[in-house]
Write a structure and sequence with these properties.
By secondary structure, the protein is of the alpha+beta class. The chain has helices spanning about 155-175, 175-185; strands at about 1-5, 20-25, 30, 35-40, 40-45, 50-55, 70, 85, 95-100, 140, 145-150, 190-195, 200-205.
Length: about 230
Amino acid sequence: MNYHFPQRFQRGTLPEDFPQGQIRTLFLDWERKETVFTPGVVIPLRPFFGNMGVAPRQGEKRPATIPDYFGGNMDNKELVAGTTLFLPVQVPGALFSAGDAHAVQGDGEVNVTAIETAMKESVLQFFVRKDMKIERPMAETPTHWSTMGFHEDLDEAAKIALRDAIRFISATKGLSADDAYSLCSLAVDLRVTQLVDDHKGIHAMISKNIFVEGRKEQKSAVTRGRF
């Protein structure tokens, strides 16, 4: 089902526009992998866990419903089957947990919910990457790398995701910070992960197809200095 709360709960992106709230039940056609929202409106299904995370730092008590450096209720629709999620480990054993199954969701999850559903079975693989040093969740899809930022202020979330993207590009592709910043403006997409989990989310999508190894290209001129 999908629902938005009445205005008095002050949840979602536009509570003031929908004072009554609504609950909508949808049939999931798993053979066709789609749901009919209304006659003539058909949505392909892309199931994923909205909430995936590890334990926070020793001594901290943090609600999993508010996403942060440990993961939690990220509601990132890119974390479907075939995506690798990287999480920084804070305590021995990591203590990973997952839940909040979604059948499909748009970027933003604007009315508070996706298609909330049950997930009878999920196959997850775990690997310890001691060669990676990250402070926040990252992801790799077949086509993109993705950095994530979470903050109560959406602008601050964007800065967090962007700074991590710049650091990632600089570290893995040998670009200076200035060039990585420039590349982000030209070829990296900042998407609104969700607007409704107290800590809002931005994820930066770094396309793999812009990096062509071994091909000789004409060099561009770079001028640095004060304007």
